[in-house]
Amino acid sequence: MAQKLRIAVHKFASCDGCQMQFLNLEQDLLTLARQVEIVHFAEATSVMQQGPYDVSFVEGSISTSTDLQRIQQVRAASRMLITIGACATAGGLQALRNWKDHGEFVRAIYARPEYIDSLAQSTPVSAHVKVDAELWGCPIDQQQLKRVLSDVLARITPRIPGESVCMECKRAGNVCVLVTKGEPCLGPVTRTGCGALCPRYERDCYGCFGPQEDGNARALGRRFQALGLSADEIVRRFRFINGWAPAMRAGAQAWEKQKPIIENMD
Amino acid sequence: MTAQSRLLARADFNALIHALEAQGYRVLGPRERAGAIVFDEITRAEDLPVGRVSAQQPGSYRLEDSGNGRFFDYVHGPESLKRFLFAPEERLWTVSAEGTVSFKETLPEARPVAVIGARACDIAGMQVQDRTFLAGNEKIPPLLKGGHGGIYTDPYYATRRENLFIVAVNCTRSAATCFCASMDTGPRARAGYDLALTELEDDFLVEANSTAGEALLAALPLRNADAGAESAAAEAIEAAAVSQTRRMDTTGIQALLFDNLEHPRWDDVAERCLSCGNCTMVCPTCFCHSETDVTSLDGATSEHRRQWDSCFALDHSYLHGAQIRPQIRQRYRQWLTHKLASWIEQFGTSGCVGCGRCITWCPTGIDLIEEVNAIRATPGAQRAADI
Lengths: 266, 387
Hints:
The structure holds 2 protein chains of 2 kinds.
Chain A: E1 5-11, H1 17-23, H2 27-35, E2 36-41, E3 53-59, H3 65-77, E4 78-84, H4 86-90, H5 102-109, E5 133-135, H6 142-153, H7 165-172, H8 177-181, H9 197-200, H10 217-226, H11 231-238, H12 246-253
Helix pairs in contact in A: 10-12, 11-12
Chain B: E1 6-9, H1 13-22, E2 26-33, E3 36-41, E4 52-57, E5 60-65, H2 82-85, E6 89-96, E7 102-105, E8 113-118, H3 120-133, H4 155-162, E9 164-170, H5 180-183, E10 195-199, E11 203-208, H6 211-217, E12 222-224, H7 227-242, H8 253-258, H9 265-272, H10 278-282, E13 289-295, E14 301-308, E15 318-319, E16 322-323, H11 328-347, H12 357-360, H13 368-377
Parallel strand pairs in B: 2-8, 8-9, 9-10
Antiparallel strand pairs in B: 1-11, 1-12, 2-3, 4-5, 6-7, 6-14, 10-11, 13-14, 15-16
Helix pairs in contact in B: 9-11
């Protein structure tokens, strides 16, 4: 066995849910501990070592000027950088501000807006530094995380499927909620990886795993319109947890009146 | 087979289920779940979708009450026989690195399974897949011949296939998306089944088509069918064929599609296609799959897994650092030209059996017949080149 890999988990603007998925590996963490050394993981331990790291997992979006600097440091200290979750991979729910006047929010909410150091846009890690692999989801899926970890340990490129949720639905024998009930399911344009969790319970997919590799959100929007959704409802459908991901943005674009305040950074 | 056909009273249907159970079969049949008819385990006639019919349109499937007590008027749901033979996901082998590296094939359990309610299109689809997975099989040589085919038998498919008992149901009703009559595969099952049922007023006309099927008949409370029952069955099946409004014109289809690879219709359909892969998942003949290794965290063991894949997934055309079909236009074209045209050269048969599932279960309701007709209407048209 080669020397143990030095693993770090970094947090940016996020809810910690993806880090919790890491911790919830429970029994597998003991196995993992024999293979790797977790040297930096704020959610798990207060002992935080400096780099270099073999692999850095990054949770959260880039949301403050401090984040802008810190992500550069993380990148420089890491041989491999893997984003975990919708925030780090697509900007997250907090990217909803990207379509609005950020300053207005700050002034409306905080008594002393001058103390608030947040950027006008919430952006994915890939908008700032090179990313080696992206784990999607809100939160990420433990099976996918384990798969990526075992790939990393085997020193091979992590394999992350890019196909649609529909593929997983059909394999699992789930009945299509769009075709049988006319539900505005985002499954056809959403990436698999969740185990088709919502459709399995006869719920429409809301896209928490981000866009599939090459779907057609504009065509799905037209289908939603035929199902009776208004233009505003279609925009809200695409502009949610992964709304800032380019494919979801394109899906909403055709139906929206308002353009982003600032043009996209990636 | 021209054996005497017999009648099973609808009220005696449980006898069929029980006879199969008594012979050790796991009995699967149509059941209603989540707004569709799917195959699942059944133990009694009440489990069947009694009095239910499917209203199918491009991109839409609704179950409705028929107001009668018939068992099989629903026509079909998203599933064919495919998932019981070519598993959606399965382990092919495991490898262990503990001590010496060793490999172990993990064949499926050879458990007899009986499926009640397979339609002519499902069986035709199975026979098409037999050409892919049973090419070298001597126990069940593929019925269809011709094409380049292959010489390999897939032991996972073959194990299930050898243990499958098929109770076919001849369709006496067609869905609006059905076009098996034009593909010459139905609505009457012709071969490849053990028993065939045709639903009449109060009875099922029962015909056996295998030794196993004949043996099962002996366990059923049957009475001989008279000529009236046989002609009533034939008329009902013919009526289902005549009622089909969709029809695939396959005249010269190989030349038509391959002479029109740059037709603007491929761009048009790419505007509507989600590239979600639903059509390929519900297709009874699509056989594409991907294989991956799942390694344990300690690196000591690994599983080699196979799962249904689709030519609509971008990864499927990934070769040596490049996507060879990066556009939806190219992927749809790949699917349709293979399904309807190059399949004939490859396997000696069309890859389409006319079940219409790809039309019903396409979220945006793309109808492959319309796509073919559009190209047929303006052959030779050329798309503008990509800028």
